[in-house]
Design brief:
Blueprint: H1 16-22, E1 34-37, E2 47-50, E3 55-60, H2 73-84, E4 89-94, H3 112-127, E5 134-137, H4 148-162, E6 166-170, E7 191-193, H5 196-203
Parallel strand pairs: 3-4, 3-5, 5-6
Antiparallel strand pairs: 1-2, 2-4, 6-7
Helix pairs in contact: 3-4
Protein backbone atom coordinates (compact mmCIF):
# COMPACT_ATOMS: atom_id res chain seq x y z
CA UNK A 1 0.00 0.00 0.00
CA UNK A 2 1.30 3.44 -0.90
CA UNK A 3 -0.43 6.47 0.58
CA UNK A 4 1.17 9.78 -0.49
CA UNK A 5 3.12 11.36 2.34
CA UNK A 6 2.56 14.89 1.06
CA UNK A 7 1.44 16.91 -1.93
CA UNK A 8 3.94 16.59 -4.76
CA UNK A 9 4.37 20.39 -4.74
CA UNK A 10 6.19 19.91 -1.41
CA UNK A 11 8.74 17.54 -2.95
CA UNK A 12 12.06 18.30 -4.61
CA UNK A 13 11.10 16.67 -7.90
CA UNK A 14 13.70 15.34 -10.28
CA UNK A 15 12.98 16.41 -13.82
CA UNK A 16 12.53 13.53 -16.21
CA UNK A 17 15.88 14.22 -17.87
CA UNK A 18 17.65 14.30 -14.50
CA UNK A 19 15.95 11.10 -13.36
CA UNK A 20 16.72 9.36 -16.66
CA UNK A 21 20.39 10.33 -16.54
CA UNK A 22 20.71 8.77 -13.07
CA UNK A 23 18.75 5.61 -13.81
CA UNK A 24 20.44 2.22 -13.78
CA UNK A 25 23.12 3.16 -11.26
CA UNK A 26 21.56 1.75 -8.11
CA UNK A 27 22.61 -1.85 -8.78
CA UNK A 28 19.21 -3.07 -7.64
CA UNK A 29 18.18 -4.35 -11.09
CA UNK A 30 19.56 -5.07 -14.56
CA UNK A 31 19.54 -1.77 -16.51
CA UNK A 32 20.07 -3.67 -19.77
CA UNK A 33 16.66 -5.28 -19.25
CA UNK A 34 14.68 -2.71 -17.29
CA UNK A 35 13.83 0.96 -17.70
CA UNK A 36 12.88 2.48 -14.32
CA UNK A 37 12.71 6.24 -13.91
CA UNK A 38 13.41 7.39 -11.24
CA UNK A 39 15.30 4.21 -10.37
CA UNK A 40 14.48 4.35 -6.67
CA UNK A 41 11.21 4.10 -4.81
CA UNK A 42 9.70 7.52 -4.21
CA UNK A 43 6.42 9.45 -4.34
CA UNK A 44 6.26 9.51 -8.13
CA UNK A 45 7.27 7.35 -11.07
CA UNK A 46 7.64 8.33 -14.70
CA UNK A 47 8.38 4.97 -16.36
CA UNK A 48 8.61 1.28 -15.55
CA UNK A 49 9.13 -1.31 -18.25
CA UNK A 50 11.44 -3.49 -20.27
CA UNK A 51 13.79 -2.41 -23.02
CA UNK A 52 13.13 -3.14 -26.67
CA UNK A 53 12.48 -1.56 -30.06
CA UNK A 54 8.82 -2.56 -30.36
CA UNK A 55 7.23 -1.78 -26.97
CA UNK A 56 3.57 -1.83 -26.03
CA UNK A 57 3.02 1.40 -24.10
CA UNK A 58 0.31 0.77 -21.52
CA UNK A 59 -1.37 3.81 -19.97
CA UNK A 60 -2.82 3.58 -16.48
CA UNK A 61 -4.03 6.42 -14.27
CA UNK A 62 -1.24 6.59 -11.71
CA UNK A 63 1.60 4.35 -10.49
CA UNK A 64 1.49 2.16 -7.44
CA UNK A 65 4.17 -0.02 -5.83
CA UNK A 66 5.62 -2.08 -8.70
CA UNK A 67 9.37 -2.05 -9.42
CA UNK A 68 11.78 -4.04 -11.63
CA UNK A 69 11.65 -7.76 -10.84
CA UNK A 70 8.79 -7.03 -8.45
CA UNK A 71 5.77 -6.58 -10.70
CA UNK A 72 2.28 -6.39 -9.26
CA UNK A 73 -0.60 -8.34 -10.80
CA UNK A 74 -1.53 -5.46 -13.10
CA UNK A 75 1.98 -5.28 -14.56
CA UNK A 76 2.15 -9.07 -14.92
CA UNK A 77 -1.02 -8.89 -17.00
CA UNK A 78 0.45 -6.08 -19.10
CA UNK A 79 3.54 -8.15 -19.81
CA UNK A 80 1.50 -11.21 -20.83
CA UNK A 81 -0.70 -9.21 -23.21
CA UNK A 82 2.32 -7.47 -24.74
CA UNK A 83 3.92 -10.87 -25.36
CA UNK A 84 0.75 -12.34 -26.86
CA UNK A 85 0.34 -9.42 -29.28
CA UNK A 86 3.86 -9.69 -30.65
CA UNK A 87 5.67 -6.88 -28.81
CA UNK A 88 9.26 -7.35 -27.66
CA UNK A 89 8.83 -5.21 -24.54
CA UNK A 90 6.34 -3.23 -22.51
CA UNK A 91 6.29 0.19 -20.89
CA UNK A 92 3.96 1.06 -18.02
CA UNK A 93 3.15 4.72 -18.20
CA UNK A 94 0.52 6.73 -16.36
CA UNK A 95 -1.72 9.71 -17.00
CA UNK A 96 -0.42 11.24 -13.76
CA UNK A 97 2.89 10.33 -12.13
CA UNK A 98 2.00 10.51 -8.42
CA UNK A 99 2.13 7.15 -6.63
CA UNK A 100 -1.05 6.17 -4.79
CA UNK A 101 -2.31 2.63 -4.32
CA UNK A 102 -5.81 3.97 -3.79
CA UNK A 103 -6.71 6.42 -6.57
CA UNK A 104 -8.86 8.41 -4.12
CA UNK A 105 -5.59 9.40 -2.42
CA UNK A 106 -4.35 11.22 -5.52
CA UNK A 107 -3.94 14.93 -5.01
CA UNK A 108 -6.99 16.96 -5.86
CA UNK A 109 -5.10 19.67 -7.73
CA UNK A 110 -2.71 18.89 -10.55
CA UNK A 111 0.94 19.71 -10.00
CA UNK A 112 1.74 21.30 -13.35
CA UNK A 113 5.49 20.78 -12.89
CA UNK A 114 4.99 17.05 -12.34
CA UNK A 115 2.66 16.86 -15.32
CA UNK A 116 5.16 18.66 -17.55
CA UNK A 117 7.93 16.21 -16.66
CA UNK A 118 5.55 13.29 -17.12
CA UNK A 119 4.80 14.50 -20.65
CA UNK A 120 8.55 14.70 -21.32
CA UNK A 121 8.70 11.05 -20.24
CA UNK A 122 5.84 10.22 -22.61
CA UNK A 123 7.71 11.74 -25.54
CA UNK A 124 10.74 9.67 -24.61
CA UNK A 125 8.84 6.38 -24.65
CA UNK A 126 7.17 7.27 -27.94
CA UNK A 127 10.61 7.74 -29.48
CA UNK A 128 11.65 4.26 -28.33
CA UNK A 129 9.42 2.60 -30.92
CA UNK A 130 10.83 1.42 -34.23
CA UNK A 131 7.80 2.51 -36.23
CA UNK A 132 4.46 3.90 -35.14
CA UNK A 133 4.19 3.73 -31.33
CA UNK A 134 1.45 1.43 -29.97
CA UNK A 135 -0.35 3.08 -27.05
CA UNK A 136 -2.76 0.96 -25.02
CA UNK A 137 -5.38 2.98 -23.10
CA UNK A 138 -5.96 0.87 -19.97
CA UNK A 139 -7.05 3.22 -17.21
CA UNK A 140 -10.50 1.88 -16.36
CA UNK A 141 -13.23 3.85 -14.61
CA UNK A 142 -10.79 5.49 -12.22
CA UNK A 143 -10.07 8.07 -14.91
CA UNK A 144 -13.11 9.82 -13.42
CA UNK A 145 -11.37 10.19 -10.06
CA UNK A 146 -9.96 13.66 -10.80
CA UNK A 147 -11.17 16.27 -13.28
CA UNK A 148 -7.64 17.21 -14.34
CA UNK A 149 -7.00 13.74 -15.76
CA UNK A 150 -8.96 14.50 -18.93
CA UNK A 151 -6.64 17.39 -19.79
CA UNK A 152 -3.65 15.15 -19.10
CA UNK A 153 -4.99 12.57 -21.58
CA UNK A 154 -5.65 15.27 -24.18
CA UNK A 155 -2.06 16.44 -23.87
CA UNK A 156 -0.91 12.86 -24.43
CA UNK A 157 -3.09 12.57 -27.53
CA UNK A 158 -1.58 15.77 -28.94
CA UNK A 159 1.96 14.58 -28.26
CA UNK A 160 1.21 11.13 -29.65
CA UNK A 161 -0.11 12.60 -32.88
CA UNK A 162 3.32 14.11 -33.57
CA UNK A 163 4.83 10.62 -33.48
CA UNK A 164 2.09 8.81 -35.36
CA UNK A 165 0.94 6.95 -32.26
CA UNK A 166 -1.75 4.31 -32.72
CA UNK A 167 -4.13 3.93 -29.81
CA UNK A 168 -5.69 0.66 -28.67
CA UNK A 169 -7.84 -0.87 -25.95
CA UNK A 170 -8.10 -4.48 -24.78
CA UNK A 171 -11.20 -6.18 -23.47
CA UNK A 172 -14.72 -4.87 -23.21
CA UNK A 173 -15.13 -1.17 -22.50
CA UNK A 174 -17.28 -0.10 -19.56
CA UNK A 175 -20.90 1.06 -19.79
CA UNK A 176 -19.55 4.63 -19.78
CA UNK A 177 -17.10 3.81 -22.55
CA UNK A 178 -13.93 3.69 -20.45
CA UNK A 179 -11.10 1.35 -21.52
CA UNK A 180 -10.75 -1.89 -19.56
CA UNK A 181 -8.13 -2.04 -16.83
CA UNK A 182 -5.44 -4.72 -17.47
CA UNK A 183 -6.22 -6.69 -14.33
CA UNK A 184 -8.33 -9.80 -15.00
CA UNK A 185 -7.94 -9.58 -18.77
CA UNK A 186 -7.25 -12.87 -20.54
CA UNK A 187 -3.61 -13.25 -21.48
CA UNK A 188 -4.65 -13.76 -25.12
CA UNK A 189 -6.68 -10.55 -25.26
CA UNK A 190 -6.27 -8.81 -28.63
CA UNK A 191 -5.76 -5.08 -29.05
CA UNK A 192 -8.62 -3.14 -30.63
CA UNK A 193 -8.20 0.24 -32.40
CA UNK A 194 -9.29 3.15 -30.22
CA UNK A 195 -10.17 6.73 -31.14
CA UNK A 196 -8.80 8.38 -28.03
CA UNK A 197 -9.80 11.94 -28.92
CA UNK A 198 -13.39 10.99 -29.70
CA UNK A 199 -13.50 9.08 -26.43
CA UNK A 200 -12.34 12.15 -24.49
CA UNK A 201 -15.02 14.31 -26.08
CA UNK A 202 -17.84 11.82 -25.53
CA UNK A 203 -16.97 10.00 -22.31
CA UNK A 204 -14.89 12.34 -20.13
Amino acid sequence: MHIPSSATTELALLSFDEALSRSGRSGAYDPEKWLYVPDFYTEYRYILGTRGTHPLICIGVNPSTAAPDDLDNTLKSVRRIADHNGFDSFIMFNVYAQRATRPQDMEKTRNNALHRENMAAFEYVLRMSDGAPAVWAAWGNIIEMRKYLKDCVLDMIDIGSRYGARWYTAGKRSAKGHPHHPLYLRKDSPLDPFDAREYCMECL
